[in-house]
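queue> pop job 88
queue> type: inverse folding (structure -> sequence)
queue> payload:
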């Protein structure tokens, strides 16, 4: 991620419109807001792997009612414990400083399309019930601020049919591969084995006999 930080600081990417990030697991603090603060023209983001959950957190304003939820931190069920994101500090009643909380300014103000791959929507996320709850909050907030998400694509991810149906009600263009657990489907495919090429021998023999008869 240090390479990413340096690249974002050095390169002139202010006109970038499409951004793709892939991280299967991440266990370090990353300030995504700071990294992408100048990416104001991005309209499409593709996130691959649970290490990118932190980007989704950065896109969503914290909800005060959930500040103590997920106190044990998030976890990637199919990888190392890590979301690569900032976690909100709990309220401290002993703190006499009751000044206004910092205003959360999500990156990518022009974001309209979000593509998600290899994520588990049941992953716990600090401040929200799970990843599904986080994404619903993000979509609702963007709708409320008149910067709605127009396209949401999910494949392949671990997500229930009910969750997919719920997300479909929030965006005009919703795409899902109808795979509730692609890893389970893949395991089943390998358990079933593959066709033996030798099974074609009978068909080849019949063809030979046919031509010999001519």
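queue> result:
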């Amino acid at each position: 991620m240090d390479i990413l930080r340096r690249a974002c600081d050095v390169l002139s990417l202010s006109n970038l419109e499409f951004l793709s990030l892939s991280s299967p697991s991440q266990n370090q603090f990353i300030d995504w807001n700071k990294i992408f603060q100048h990416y104001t023209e991005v309209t499409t983001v593709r996130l691959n792997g649970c290490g990118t959950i932190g980007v989704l957190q950065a896109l969503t304003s914290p909800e005060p009612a959930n500040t103590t939820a997920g106190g044990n931190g998030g976890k990637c069920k199919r990888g190392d414990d890590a979301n690569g994101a900032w976690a909100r500090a709990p309220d401290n009643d002993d703190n006499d400083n009751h000044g206004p909380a910092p205003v959360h300014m999500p990156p990518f103000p022009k974001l309209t399309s979000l593509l998600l791959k290899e994520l588990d929507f049941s992953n716990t996320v600090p401040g929200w019930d799970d990843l599904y709850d986080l994404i619903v909050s993000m979509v609702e907030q963007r709708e409320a601020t008149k910067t709605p998400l127009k396209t949401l694509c999910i494949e392949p991810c671990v997500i229930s049919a009910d969750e997919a149906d719920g997300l479909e009600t929030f965006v005009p263009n919703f795409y899902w591969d109808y795979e509730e657990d692609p890893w389970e489907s893949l395991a089943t495919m390998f358990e079933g084995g593959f066709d033996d090429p030798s099974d074609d021998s009978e068909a080849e023999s019949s063809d030979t006999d046919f031509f010999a008869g001519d």
